[in-house]
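hiii so um. not sure if this is the right channel but i have a protein structure encoded as tokens and i wanna go backwards to a sequence. like what aa goes where. can anyone help
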């Protein structure tokens, strides 16, 4: 039986919020660092995030490796810490678990998430090759939605996703139990495939659309997408972000989303400033995500920002070969110095001791 998302959390999710994709905190031996993992989660909650996504790409897919054995422990730890800190602060945060693999694995992972107290799952279809019929992918998502509410995930092929055409999304949005979609193909054309499918199905008022296009965050959030359908023009907005980029400098991301939502059509000067700021954020993301090397240093880049703030001890990943690319550290330092308005260093410094306690 699929659990329902509490009404207050669902309303916040639908209206739009900041949802960081949570990194995995490791120590120098590449084992889970529970103190730093707890500190990260407390940081995101205090920064104003409305949701947290655990077990996703930024958490490292390798946590599912039986030799690593971290999928269940990380989900359980994160859920308990979120509940404890939310109760302490008197807030609520939506807990989202990443679900991967073919159907048997995905159902097992969804069940783990259900038992650990998560509210929804973000479903990756990267395990299916391009030859897999799209109908099988839709059936996969429908089966998972029987366990927990589903957020669709258009993951860019460069980091393990596959191309999902309009026809897939047109069927996907009709699944009972789907509550939203993270659009992250890093492509304008493929982003519009999802938008068109939602509008053509008349689902714009029911499904929350979130950008995962870390290279296009502000423009995604500012755009009113208008689609001509058989019933006439339909418009939708991307209401928030579920992003690896928002796993760093999260307090500033919360402020950015609030500013975007405050813009009206007549705020020409504010709109211009936001678009200019969006270009700066894209430059910063290029350094952190290592766009110059095909995103090879994406996760270590996130770790480097958090390490510099004291939230992580180092940039270690489960795969010892997954490291910062040549010149990436210098690029991160460049954008940090060039765009001080994007970081939340002072906020972190003021609270770090409390989060680590």
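sure thing!! here u go:
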């Amino acid at each position: 039986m699929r659990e329902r998302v509490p009404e207050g959390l669902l309303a916040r999710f639908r209206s739009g919020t900041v949802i960081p994709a949570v990194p995995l905190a490791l120590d120098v031996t590449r084992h889970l660092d529970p103190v730093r993992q707890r500190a990260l989660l407390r940081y995101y909650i205090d920064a104003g995030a409305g949701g947290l996504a655990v077990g996703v790409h930024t958490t490292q897919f390798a946590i599912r490796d039986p030799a690593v054995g971290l999928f269940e422990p990380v989900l359980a730890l994160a859920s308990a810490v979120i509940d404890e800190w939310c109760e302490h602060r008197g807030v609520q945060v939506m807990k989202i678990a990443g679900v991967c693999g073919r159907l048997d694995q995905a159902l097992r992972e969804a069940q783990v998430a259900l038992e650990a107290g998560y509210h929804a799952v973000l479903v990756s279809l990267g395990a299916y090759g391009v030859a897999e019929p799209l109908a099988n992918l839709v059936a996969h998502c429908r089966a998972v939605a029987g366990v927990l509410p589903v957020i669709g995930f258009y993951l860019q092929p460069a980091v393990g996703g596959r191309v999902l055409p309009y026809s897939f999304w047109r069927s996907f949005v009709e699944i009972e139990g789907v509550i939203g979609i993270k659009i992250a193909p890093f492509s304008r054309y493929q982003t519009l495939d999802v938008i068109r499918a939602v509008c053509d199905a008349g689902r714009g008022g029911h499904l929350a659309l979130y950008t995962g296009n870390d290279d296009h965050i502000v423009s995604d959030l500012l755009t009113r997408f208008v689609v001509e359908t058989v019933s006439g023009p339909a418009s939708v907005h991307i209401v928030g972000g579920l992003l690896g980029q928002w796993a760093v400098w999260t307090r500033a991301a919360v402020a950015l989303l609030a500013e975007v939502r405050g813009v009206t059509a007549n705020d020409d000067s504010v709109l211009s400033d936001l678009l200019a700021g969006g270009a700066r954020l894209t430059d910063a993301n290029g350094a952190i995500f290592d766009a110059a090397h095909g995103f090879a240093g994406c996760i270590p880049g996130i770790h480097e920002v958090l390490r510099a703030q004291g939230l992580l001890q180092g940039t270690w990943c489960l795969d010892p070969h997954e490291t910062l690319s040549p010149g990436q550290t210098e690029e991160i330092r460049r954008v940090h110095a060039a765009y001080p308005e994007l970081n939340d260093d002072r906020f972190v410094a003021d609270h770090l001791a409390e989060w680590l306690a």
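oh and The longest strand covers residues 178-184.
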